[in-house]
Specification:
By secondary structure, this protein is of the alpha/beta class. The protein is built from 6 helices and 11 strands. The chain has a single domain (3-235), classed as Vaccinia Virus protein VP39 (Rossmann fold). It has helices at 9-21, 31-38, 52-65, 82-88, 144-154, 189-202; strands at 3-5, 72-75, 94-98, 113-116, 129-135, 155-167, 178-179, 182-183, 204-206, 219-221, 224-235.
Length: 236
């Protein structure tokens, strides 16, 4: 299902165990990070436990629909596990963009091309990518039309936009709260349906049906309780 909501704690716990089992975890508490720390290097802050669910779903989707040689760019790449995990899976044409300068120190920086850029206005040529990923990135400094228009421009025909975002069916007020120096939104159901409708208007369609139901709030940031939604869109 191309639009899913994380409903139980066990979903992200089980996902982290699967990422660890497959050797794909770059999370601070992972075996990889402990080894890095043991030899005396400062381990980068990569990944979050609660984001294990959407990371695994994204990796599984890309494994199913893409070939390892196809180009992928990650929006909001600073601190994200996606590119490092894809590198371990054998993907070799990987790019990451973020406004944070530390992004250039991301995992496998010798093989993955990282750039300090605004992902709503990148320097890449039209139709550069087979897939774009964005793990908990689109809710920061959101401009839906600009974001989706840039995604459409960058994707090849039939390419995929796979991502996740903060979500709760009823509106949660985040006015005045900044994350990463940007305004922050927790999508409610109406806003999420509007996001999907705007994507369809621009030329990006869900790869199947959507289920907007949430059962329990599982994430707490600044006293705001919510969960994550995951989506997969395809360029028409």
């Amino acid at each position: 299902m191309p639009f899913r909501v994380m409903r139980r704690v066990e979903e992200y716990q089980d996902a982290r165990r699967e990422l660890d089992r497959r050797g794909l975890s770059l999370y601070r508490g992972s075996t990889f990070t402990r080894l890095v720390q043991r030899v005396g290097f400062r381990a980068p802050k990569i990944g979050e436990l609660t984001k294990s669910w959407d990371v695994l779903l994204t990796l599984q989707f890309l494994e199913q629909y893409l070939k390892p040689a196809e180009p992928v760019v990650d929006f909001g790449a600073n601190g994200s596990e996606i590119l490092g995990a894809l590198h371990r899976l054998g993907f070799r044409n990987l790019h990451g963009v973020d406004l944070e300068p530390d992004v250039v120190r991301g995992p496998y920086a010798g093989s993955i091309r990282y750039y300090v850029q605004d992902f709503m206005h990148t320097s890449y040529a039209d139709s550069s990518f087979a897939a774009i990923t964005a793990i908990s990135a689109v809710e920061h400094g959101l401009d839906v039309s600009r974001l989706l228009s840039e995604v459409f421009r960058l994707l090849r025909p039939g390419g995929y936009f796979i991502g996740s975002t903060d979500y709760w069916p009823k509106k949660i007020d985040t006015d005045g709260i900044k994350l990463y120096g940007l305004d922050w939104i927790i999508f409610d159901e109406e806003e999420m349906r509007g996001f999907v409708a705007e994507a369809r208007r621009i030329g990006l369609e869900l790869v199947g049906d959507a289920d907007y139901v949430a059962e329990y709030p599982l994430v707490n940031v600044f006293g705001k309780w919510y969960t994550f939604a995951w989506f997969a869109l395809r360029k028409i």
